[in-house]
Amino acid sequence: LTIGLELVAKPHILFLDEPTAGLDAQSSYNIVKFIRKLADAGMPLVCTIHQPSSVLFEYFDRLLLLGRGGKMIYFGDIGPHSRIMLDYFEKNGARPCTNEENPAEYILEAIGAGTHGATTQDWAQIWRESQEKIAMEVELNESAKVGDKSEPHKAIEFATSPFSQTLELYKRLNISFWRNPAYNASRIFNALLVGLAVGFSFWRQGNSTSDLQLIVFAIFQILVLGIMLINAALPEFMMLRTLFQRAYASKIYSSAPFSIALILTDLPYLLVAGSLCFVCCFFAVGFDNYNTPSNIAFFWIAFVLFLWYCNSFGQLIGSMAPNPFIAFLIMPVLTSILFLFCGVLSPPSAMPYFWRSWMYPLDPFRYFMEAIITNTLSGLTVQCTYADFYKFFRPAATTCASYTADFFSYGATGYVEDLGNGLCGYCSFKSGREFYSMLGWDEANKDRNLGILMGYFVFNIIAASFFVYLFRKPKR
Question: Is the pTM here over 0.85, yes or no?
Fold first, then answer.
């Protein structure tokens, strides 16, 4: 497997450090036979090998033998039946090698290798003065002069283009997700569960002011699914990042194709999860009573995009954290900030200036909430129930409308209604637009807000890719 991973990167030369170590005789033979085929196909190989048998030893073309202190003892051809190498040692004073001996063990004995080995000859000096050394130097010099006369190729870090890397990673991740469905099945189940919980908790809301508050809280509760997706993305991403670090070390693919392929693989599953949650809660809450088909479509698009953003945000946190423990410590702090400053729990006007000046405009949840609430409530006409009215008595000889004319002339929202017997009722809002205008939100900004949310989504992908690259080498 290790050799195969290195071959994927198409190296110019392959270094193998004791590829047969720890293997039995048959496995060692298969490995050496395989690398022999690679050499015959034109792949330059340099290999260190430990105690090879005579059969394995003959598969190699040349031998570089080092003695104590790293001194060169022999560098040249091995020859058929190791005859060229054996002739060199025999003619320089070593005893003859019998046919039953292993040539590799014979030369180690001849040069006095090992703890108890001994020799009376200085084989390093013999090599320096030998004709074989002179012939080898001439051959190397001639090879250097001839060289490769073809046009030099531009050095590249990876064997394939970024597009090819992304495509192959996308295919592989799809197969992996399909074979291991627990991750995506849990996300889809969570989406279904949240949709049903919100739908049945806020079942068929009306159009009174009390219903208006519940409608906003129903939308706010949908944010829980986004937090669940962030939690789900963290461990999965960090496991895949570990695999990336191994692949990057072998120069198989880079960080950008990894991040892009992972996002592209996630999108269809999040589309299914978002659609299920949308169907379960949108019609159950009663949003369809006062929304046009275009508003319904916008709600669905914005909600799915929001889930894409949350998933990418979870991957961003995972790419920055060195381990899952740190990631799960950071995540609650960041998600709490997203909740607190989205403009629902605390309107912008009620926030301290410090937070309102920079945190509120930076909060991605704010743009999602503004887009989806203004879109949903823009067609709602408010009709207060008797319990919702603020009741007061009008003076005699006046009407409710004339008595409150000055009040409405100052731009007050809502309307007044005569409840009979001199009793007037004031309703705080007469439309959904009046409600969200108090938050400083405007339906005209919903397309802009959707674009900003898309920008945050793209930013998360780029930032996650950067941090994956930054921490591409695991700490030891």
Answer: no
